[in-house]
Amino acid sequence: MPKHMAERNFKKRKSQNVKKKPLNTILLIILILLFLYSAINVGFWAVSNIGQKKQETEVAKQVETVKKDEEGEEVQSIDFGKLKEINQDSVAWIKISNTNINYPIMQANDNEYYLKKDIYKKYSSCGSIFMDYRNNKQFTDKNTVIFGHNLTLGMMFSDLQQILKGKLGNDVYVDIYMQNKIKQYKVFSCYQTEPVEDPISVNISNYKEFLDNALKNSQIDFKTNPNEQDNIITLSTCDNTGKERIIVHAVAILEKTIS
User: Hey, which residues does 215 pair with through a beta bridge?
Assistant: First the structure.
């Protein structure tokens, strides 16, 4: 190859490399900025989660108390006077043994408000545990639906996964504390499903069919069969991917008056 042609090709390649360098630098800067943005968001999210976890623990300490049931025995209870002072939207308290689920249940005028609000009605990515706005506060509906986020730090309804995985066995009980009353429920069905309306429907047209489907879909045999006269609660949260729901159904088995 003639010398002048070799020099021309060399200059051409050099010119192309010079053009690529600014482009590569820009791409690198964009990637670094995206990484920093993601890291900052994760950091804020973690701080928010830790802060709310501490907050919920402090609330529990304020309102957890001991009262006597109708037989005169001391039982754990919730001071609803103090709880209502914090937030009038508090309608009950939910606790599941051997899990981190120990929270107030809120109820607003829609199912959006407490997705991003804590018990103090301040913005929170963790949200709150809340009852469907269409349900009766006294848990008298055939199906009372309760929602909560699935958070990686083990908060809110993330421990419903432990029920789904069978880590709590087939004797799983949900305690609902209300003013002067405790209602206990036994889990009879737990499964993962696409985000469809039926499993979390408040108004059920065919209750027997609904119960039959819940039992059929359950990934664990809880050896409990509710009937059409029973009232149930349905707990709903997202799975780890956020694309499907974890559903837990529990039937009312016991009610105690406390004072």
Answer: none
Residue 49 placed within a domain: no
Q: What is the pLDDT of residue 73?
A: 85
Based on the structure, what is the number of domains in the chain?
1
Phi-psi category of residue 121: left, alpha or beta, with phi > 0 → left and psi -120 to 50 → alpha? left
* Side chain identity at residue 59, one-letter code: V
CA angle 184, 186, 187 (to 5 degrees): 140
Give just the sign of the alpha carbon dihedral 58, 124, 94, 152.
negative
pLDDT digits (tens, 9 = 90+) for 201-254: 778 889 999 999 999 999 999 999 999 999 999 999 988 777 889 999 999 999
| Cβ-proximal residues to 62 (8 Å cutoff; 6+ apart), any chain | 79, 82, 86
101 domain residue, yes or no:
yes
Yes or no: say if 249 and 214 are a contact pair by the CB < 8 Å rule: yes
The CA angle 182-186-191, to the nearest 5 degrees, is 130
CA distances 102 to 47, 184, 204, Å, are 21, 14, 28
